[in-house]
UniProtKB/TrEMBL annotation:
One annotated GO molecular function: ABC-type maltose transporter activity
InterPro entries reported in the protein's UniProt record: AAA+_ATPase, ABC_transporter-like_ATP-bd, ABC_transporter-like_CS, ABC_transpr_MalK/UgpC-like, Mo/tungstate-bd_C_term_dom, NA-bd_OB-fold, P-loop_NTPase, Transp-assoc_OB_typ2
Gene3D superfamilies per record: 2.40.50.100, Nucleic acid-binding proteins, P-loop containing nucleotide triphosphate hydrolases
Gene Ontology CC terms: ATP-binding cassette (ABC) transporter complex, substrate-binding subunit-containing; maltose transport complex
Phylogenetic classification of the source organism: Bacteria, Pseudomonadati, Pseudomonadota, Betaproteobacteria, Burkholderiales
Domain ABC transporter intervals: 6-236
Protein name: ABC transporter ATP-binding protein
Alphabetic keyword roster: ATP-binding, Cell membrane, Membrane, Nucleotide-binding, Transport
Species annotation: Aquincola agrisoli
Length: 366
């Protein structure tokens, strides 16, 4: 199958006075597995439905394989969409559900039989053709919905929260299956999710949306390592954010008055050298950039130390995630697990050591 690109150019959409999509520009490469990630109400589904042709077109352009499909009805776009609730026909067998799109397109009988059989085989449901949807598990229903969409051989596959109806274990298994299937078919796929882990583990690249604005586009690793703003930093992975004001700035050393914490002196941090020249800055760092030590331990001078109180701890096998109250803030700190290492009890005083080179600074906006 030919792999095609998808381009959104200056796409805008409003419902009444509410602007739901604000000048969206996206370039999706042929054969990519692309995620639209964002919180509830950020406009992900609206954008997906617009690409499918289900939403009225208001402003901007949509190109599939370089061709302008703006304004074309859904059935002329050669785009397949799997809905969140699967939308299977309850009174039809699995076979008839999958065959439906081909019957509508008046595909002749022998070709139809061959294509439905192949689609069911692709999703591992050859033996289930005569069942009805209510005789299937959630994961199997999800596969029927996929088979029903890929059988029409769309150039682009759109998936709206495809795994959200499944329990956690099945979701993890199905996302790998989905990715393997997408790789096998080579079909350009755009999927919507609010689950950052789902996007990070599967997507080639992703776009993070907030309030109808694309905040950043890139590989999961690029967004994790180099978020452009505090929204992306906080939405992709876990990020500690401490807002403060610049007190002193000398060379690559910075002293910040952090709200509720007091002065934080950050020497020689890579992040300080290219810090925005704003008065109000937000200090950000990942949980693994903090080390937890006993309150009375000798302090290693390579770290910036802050006193705190343990609020909670979660043992996650390879590491323990501590929640530590520092001034008015609750910081996440991940400590690698070594057998026999003493745990810091909830309610106890600790010292948090921050690696200066892991700090990233953002100008405060708004
Ligand atoms: N048909 C509609 N009429 C009016 N407002 C709408 C309509 N559809 C969506 N909206 C609004 O547009 C905004 C974006 O909705 P959308 O469903 O695209 O968000 P989302 O990011 O997919 O959220 P979720 O993850 O909750 O599905 C929301 O504020 C929603 O209330």
């Amino acid at each position: 199958m030919k792999k095609v690109s998808v381009h959104c150019r200056n796409v805008r959409l409003s419902y009444g006075r509410t602007e739901v999509l604000k000048d969206v520009n996206l370039d999706i490469e042929p054969g990519e597995f692309f995620a639209l990630l964002g919180p509830s109400g950020s406009g992900k589904s609206t954008l997906l439905r617009l690409i499918a042709g289900f939403n009225p077109h208001q402003h901007g352009q949509l190109l599939v394989d370089g061709k302008d499909v703006t304004g074309l009805p859904p059935w002329e776009r050669n785009i397949g969409m799997v809905f969140q609730n699967y939308a299977l026909w309850p009174h039809m067998t699995v076979w008839d559900n999958v065959a439906f799109g081909l019957v509508e397109r008046r595909v002749e009988k022998a070709a139809l039989r061959q294509r439905v059989g192949a689609a069911l085989e692709t999703v591992g449901l050859s033996a289930y053709g005569q069942r009805r949807p209510n005789q299937l598990s959630g994961g199997q229903q999800q596969r029927v919905a996929l088979a029903r969409t890929i059988v029409i051989e769309p150039q682009v596959l759109l998936l709206d929260e495809p795994l959200s109806n499944l329990d956690k274990t099945l979701r993890v298994q199905m996302r790998q299956e989905l990715l393997a299937l997408q790789r096998r078919l080579g079909i350009t796929t755009i999927f919507v999710t609010h689950d950052q882990e789902e996007a990070m583990t599967t997507a080639d690249r992703m776009a993070v949306l907030d309030k109808g604005v694309v905040q950043q586009v890139g590989t999961p690793a690029a967004l994790y390592d180099h978020p452009v703003n505090t929204f992306v930093a906080g939405f992709v992975g876990t990020m500690n954010l401490l807002p403060g004001r610049v007190r002193d700035r000398r060379g690559d050393a910075l002293t910040l008055d952090v709200d509720g914490v007091g002065d934080l002196h950050i020497p020689g941090a890579a992040g300080v050298a290219d810090a925005p020249a704003a008065d109000a800055l937000t200090v950000s760092f990942r949980p693994h950039s903090l080390r937890v030590d006993a309150a009375d331990a000798v302090r290693d001078a390579r770290y910036v130390w802050m006193p705190g109180i343990v609020e909670a701890s979660e043992f996650l096998g390879e590491f323990t995630r501590y929640r530590v109250r520092v001034g008015a803030h609750s910081l996440a700190a991940d400590q690698p697990h070594h057998a026999g290492l003493s745990k810091f009890p909830v309610g106890g005083a600790v010292s948090l050591g921050l690696e200066p080179s892991q700090v990233r600074l953002f100008a405060q906006t708004g």
